[in-house]
């Protein structure tokens, strides 16, 4: 419970990299950090021996640095090039813009908005987009623009959504129980920038009515999965999963209630990990430094 | 996932008893139920062999009965007397009136209101009472009267609260992170009708700042406890507990975030169990038919 | 912590039924119990409203009864017939005979034997059957006959196994990580009397190398499933499941270690539930009164 | 599931340090590693901002180094001195010698021995010490010397135990349900080298009969705690904790059964963390890099 974490004006830089593994890599990175006087608050490493690939995330106290954000980034870019890194360097001050897409189910929407409102999610929410007007009330209460999309024409509907995403300069689109299948081309354009909460413990029960499928199979736990959206339905890289125990005595209502709890928790964690630059997608999987 | 549970107009009666154990007790009760044509949807029994005491809860389809609520109750009263039962017989149609008491923390308030709003909690919420005006906004959105209580004079404040409880005919008072110690006499008058959410895994870390206590002791899980309030602080019968794993890398913010999750879940379950007549308090403990 | 449960000479009868649901059923059963002076220690009910089917398990103190086992059974049979029940009535004194089938993995074998040895599993273990001689040492230490089966001819091998099951009058066959697919006809002959521990959270990762499959998919929890064996591989009714959280930092060894823990716990519970007559199989699923 | 982890002949060095935090520390350490060509398989950092203290663990492929163990250690010692480090540098080839102390309960003993036997615990077990002769059988089966200690004279008994610890050059003493309170002077002499498994979720239910205490308080989860032993009973730094859900329907036997599962898992993890140099004790708490 270190008190410094409570100091809200202490912004940080988050440096996230992955690159081919080699001896001296950590030394080079940490020497660079030392050379700019970086005070490291959190450091996470992972070596995938089989892939010979290295993954790393640092969180650095911004006020410890001798350089500003731009100069820091420029200096790091040289190092990154030398080691063939994929990398990002974000300030905790630049909040990502997160758009929420919803249908009729309101539990995920309510939870995400509440966490955002109380400061747990370090993002902006420029808009809520829905195919049911009933969600307007949440948008109003939290004073966020709400856009109703008519899905009688699917192509137009998704064109409308993509236009909104462009106009609001959205960094991440969250399908917070948005019960529409995203077209391939949209998936590809938003690749790595769109996450979904699926109401099953994937890869079990892909597709529609996962609770019914779970009931029919007689599983003893149900779950939910937060994952990046790809063209193949429910096959994207998994960020977070949650499960809860059920039994024969759980009614349909009980299963839905428990399932909602899983969805809320998996989405809340998955979303936070993404926002805090804790997720690296590599091929079909994620490294999550949580 | 039986479909009948989804049939929202199908009200039920909940018959809850406890009494000295004896052979023939279950037969007598179930024969009575058969004699009035009761279709039993859910039945739970518990025998405490040491105490020679029997605990039982039945949920009965109201539309299966030959009698109305009043006649059913009257008929059951005779049986109850014969076996020296403590008992209750409630219809799922008569929703208990639940008052929420809050201070500044809004996560439990938001969660309870959301579950109530979406029909998960089968109760009415006639009023929200708070010692901080900032909670008014939740009350407004959900269109529930909010009463601000000034605590500069504690005695008057609690007199005011008790008057509100009386006026609103409140059945259950919930301390949804209400950071005031309830006076002995109020505890006694509300005995069995007031529940609290304490932000530790009791009996560890009684009293103030449980997260700091947990941090100082270096425990590897933190938790929350939903319990009935008695005169002895944090000593009342426990209804529900939740825990989450923590580690040295959890900051103060992380612990609070995880702790809130525990509080929300323990309170949501504990409150639902009480509302659905699933809790029997016997001496210092609870039987929970969940 | 009722002391009576500790009284090891207090044997019980376990009456398990399922039948079409109807009003008066519970009354009829409990009146019968009262008429023979049965002291009910544990009672569990379940109504499947959709199927209109009723499931029930009672545990009765044997020494409270006016009748002996045979007479009790005979008397109950009349009631059972009237209500078209599938039923069993077993004494806790007649321990089922459980045969263990193993390959090379020893963790499940060690755990089951230890629990049996310390009295947690109320069964006899007349034999251990294996296709690797290395498991002999466990059999020796626990003084249980070990039968090595040569699998160079599969048909003969299974004929040998079935002969052993017959000769030892085995009630339940446990595949404690027995890495051979059971032929259809054997599955059918042992229907309801053979359980398996599969090292994944079914229905995910059916078949071989489930940990590799889980690794490839990038799931965030792995699990194990204890289920009845049917002709369709890994499709039988599920008794118990366990899961554990994993992350990118878990090596192959870590996943195996965590997986073993899941397997041990799921098998231990599933086996105990079966032995204590806590499982009712209905169609493709189980009701587990635990 | 990187294949290299499966390569059993690939030994590693584990470098564990803690020291006052300062900018450049990580750079200095990682530059040193690079200078000796160290291939880092696993790296874990923790900064305690409040204490301004830094904690770090590295696991290095031994065969990547230009130096042997002795030279590596000597070279590192200079760096360590410069930064005022507490440190250790162990090879995975030098297995610590772990002595097991037991009374009558055999579940922890059985589990630790099984994990050791199957290679999960990378240690030697030179002796088992017990105050009940019945544990001899485990020692015999695993071919480990067993020493029975007569506790009619406590002082002599502990002198005997300490002599055995000395003679066997024991690195870690494990109280695997050893139901004797360790004298203060022994605690001090073995400080940091003796761990206990306590059968409650500490700090709840210190001392004797924790399950009875848990039963009396009516908690909804029970647990177990693996901790270093200090002079104050059950107050030492916690390494690992486990919990399981219980309810009113759990008998004494059920609680003991579930509690054993917690004990086994907490001890197995805690012991492994210690053996693999994953635990740093600082003041009254632990940092566990797991």
TrEMBL record, chains A, B, C, D:
Pathway assigned in UniProt: Purine metabolism; IMP biosynthesis via de novo pathway; formate from 10-formyl-5,6,7,8-tetrahydrofolate: step 1/1
A GO molecular function assigned to this protein is: formyltetrahydrofolate deformylase activity
Xref: InterPro entries: ACT-like_dom_sf (IPR045865), ACT_dom (IPR002912), Formyl-FH4-Hydrolase_C (IPR041729), Formyl_transf_N (IPR002376), Formyl_transf_N_sf (IPR036477), PurU (IPR004810), PurU_ACT (IPR044074)
* Keyword Cell division among UniProt keywords: no
Q: What is its EC number?
A: 3.5.1.10
Annotated ACT domain ranges read 14-94
* Record field: catalytic activity: (6R)-10-formyltetrahydrofolate + H2O = (6S)-5,6,7,8-tetrahydrofolate + formate + H(+)
GO terms in the biological process aspect are: 'de novo' IMP biosynthetic process; one-carbon metabolic process
Active-site residues are: 234
CDD domains assigned to the protein according to its UniProt record, in alphabetical order: ACT_F4HF-DF, FMT_core_Formyl-FH4-Hydrolase_C
What PANTHER family does the record tag this protein with?
Answer: FORMYLTETRAHYDROFOLATE DEFORMYLASE (PTHR42706), FORMYLTETRAHYDROFOLATE DEFORMYLASE 2, MITOCHONDRIAL (PTHR42706:SF1)
Record's family?
Belongs to the PurU family.
* Record's function text: Catalyzes the hydrolysis of 10-formyltetrahydrofolate (formyl-FH4) to formate and tetrahydrofolate (FH4).
Q: What is this protein called?
A: Formyltetrahydrofolate deformylase
Q: Which organism is it from?
A: Glaciecola punicea ACAM 611
Q: What's the source species' lineage? A: Bacteria, Pseudomonadati, Pseudomonadota, Gammaproteobacteria, Alteromonadales
């Amino acid at each position: 419970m270190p008190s410094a974490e409570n100091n809200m004006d202490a912004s940080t830089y988050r440096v996230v990299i992955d690159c081919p593994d080699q001896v001296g890599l950590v030394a080079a990175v940490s020497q660079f950090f030392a050379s700019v006087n970086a005070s490291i608050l959190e450091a996470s490493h992972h070596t995938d021996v089989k892939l010979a690939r290295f993954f790393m995330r640092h969180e650095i106290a911004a006020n410890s640095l001798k350089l500003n954000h731009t100069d820091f980034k420029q200096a790091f870019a040289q190092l990154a090039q030398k080691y063939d890194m994929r990398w990002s360097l974000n300030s905790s001050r630049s909040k990502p813009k997160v758009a929420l897409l919803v249908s009729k189910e309101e539990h995920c929407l309510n939870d995400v908005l509440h966490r955002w409102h109380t400061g747990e999610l370090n993002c902006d929410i420029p808009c809520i987009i829905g195919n049911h007007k009933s969600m307007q009330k949440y948008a109003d209460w939290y004073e966020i623009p709400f856009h109703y999309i008519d899905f009688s024409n699917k192509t137009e509907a998704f064109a409308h959504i993509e236009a909104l995403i462009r106009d609001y300069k959205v960094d991440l689109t969250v399908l917070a129980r948005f019960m529409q299948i995203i077209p391939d081309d949209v998936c590809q354009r938003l690749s790595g920038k769109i996450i979904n909460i699926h109401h099953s413990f994937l890869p079990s029960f892909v597709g529609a009515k996962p609770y019914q499928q779970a009931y029919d199979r007689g599983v003893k736990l149900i779950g939910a999965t937060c994952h990046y959206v790809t063209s193949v339905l429910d096959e994207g890289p998994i960020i977070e999963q949650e499960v809860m125990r059920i039994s024969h005595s759980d009614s349909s209502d009980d299963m839905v209630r428990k399932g909602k709890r899983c969805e809320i928790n998996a989405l809340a964690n998955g979303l936070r990990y993404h926002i805090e630059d804790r997720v690296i997608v590599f091929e079909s999987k994620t490294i999550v430094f949580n």
